[in-house]
Each structure stands twice: as structure tokens, then as C-alpha cells.
Amino acid sequence: MVAARPWPWPCLLALLLLLAGGGQRPGAADSCSWRGSGLSWEPHSRAVEQVHLRCTEGSLEWMYPARALRVVLEPSLSSARHTTVCIKPASDFQGASIYVERAGQLHLVASPQRDISRRMASFQHELLSNQSAAGPDFKKMALVEAMCRPCDNVELLMAICSSDFVVKGSIRNVSHDSENHMSQVDVSVQKVYRQKNRIFQQDETSGEWRGPIQTLLQCKVKKGGGVFLFTGNEHFGEAWLGCAPRFKDFMFIYRAARERGVNPCEFQLD
Fold first, then answer.
1. Is-contact 99 20, C-beta < 8 A?
2. What's the 3-state SS for 72-114?
3. For 164, which of 58, 98, 233, 257 could close a Cys bridge (C-beta 3.0–4.6 Å)?
4. Residues 6+ apart with CB under 8 A from 6
5. Cα–Cα distance between 228 and 244 in angstroms, integer?
6. pLDDT digits (tens, 9 = 90+) for 64-113
């Protein structure tokens, strides 16, 4: 996959290795992000610089990559036995290839388009906990989202409790980007129950609340009528679709769970 284009970012296990076709001196690092340039390295050295990033979110910016840069992600996630790493290369990612290291072996994740006039290898990273004290971490359901299947009742009830966004609305439009393997669902919002950031906003002209939700092209999302409850999580400033049942179906499931006393949280009924 060409790294010079944006794509649905891969989720990888915790050690990341970034290699260029080209030792190094350290660049500027703040434990969350790193920035450096291959122009400052010793021209004949074959050393590989190792960078440690210790935050759950951050970025790396490597100008004029040369030889190799090893990036070790060491988050302070004391409650997580396993960690998943999501990376999102910049749209102008050039001049390097990304590998992940597993059991001492390197596995290619992405290779760049060659453009010697502009070489910048940069990406954002985000670390997700695979477990929580209550079992699976439904707050970050990236792997569930990627399955492109309807949520079962348990997943749906957990989603309304812990998703980054929960909105009631209808589908205005669905657009597909085959090059980047993504689809965008444009939602006309009737009610915002929760959102982490201002992805769903009120249009100044029409007064209508709207917002985009991303999903994978392989999920084959189509425009359909009716009212839905959209849930999901935010990754790199974008809303990604999780559970999205028809609203009437959700209400039936939630009321039945509440009557039995098995609803994991209270939800505001219309």
C-alpha cells in the first residue's frame, strides 16, 4: 500500500519500526512527539537512532529521511495487558517505509511513492487499550468497527454508555472513496446525546445539525431511509462508525434490558 496516500490506518501491536532507504542524531522529542531531520546525521554512520514515545497520542515528523529510525512506543497503561497501536500517515508521507516488528521479524506496513523533491515521513499515532477492568474496552471499538457487522444487543447497550459520540438522525448522503478504501456517511442530526468534540455542528444558514461519520469501504454502507442511532468513536479528529441500529429497534432493546435491570447505564429516552 502506498504510504504517500491517506488510508484507513492500520492497528498494530505495540512495537513500531520506521525505515528509510537511505544512525542518526536525536531530533526534538517531548515523549509524546518527535521531530528531526536526516540532514543533521553523520553522512557515513550506519547507526540506528532509537526514539521512545511514552504518550497514548502523539506524532512523528521526519524530514529528509536517511537510513533508519526505530520508534518504540512505551505508553503508561498500567491497567492494559495488551496495547493496540493505530497509525495515520500524513497525506504527503514521502521517502520512507513503515515496518512493524513482531518476534524479531520485520513486516512491511507501507511503502512510499518516490518523490525526491519533497521528502517528509510523518504520521500520528494513537494507542488503544484492549482490556479494561470491566472486560473488553468498548470505549475504543476500532476492531469491532472494522468487522462491518451489526452489533449484538450487548455491544449496542455498551456502545451508548461509552462511545465518543451518540446521535439520533438520518442519512443525508453516502460517498465512497475507492482509492483510500473509505466511505463517508453524512448525517442529518435530530439530537446529539453525546459527542467528545464538535464534529456534529449546527449549520449557520439552515440551522440544521449535521456531521460526517467515516467507515470502511468494505462495509458497503448505503443510503437508507428512517431514523438511526449512530454511535462510535473518534480517531485522529474524525468520527468512526460503531453501532448504528434503527432508532425504534434500539428503543425496543433498551427498554427490554431496563425492565430486566441489565442495562449497563441509563439512557435519556425521548
1. no
2. EECCCCCCCCCEEEEEEECCCCCCEEEEEEECCEEEEEEECCC
3. 233
4. 88, 89, 90, 91, 180
5. 6
6. 777 778 888 776 654 455 467 777 777 777 767 788 777 777 877 766 55
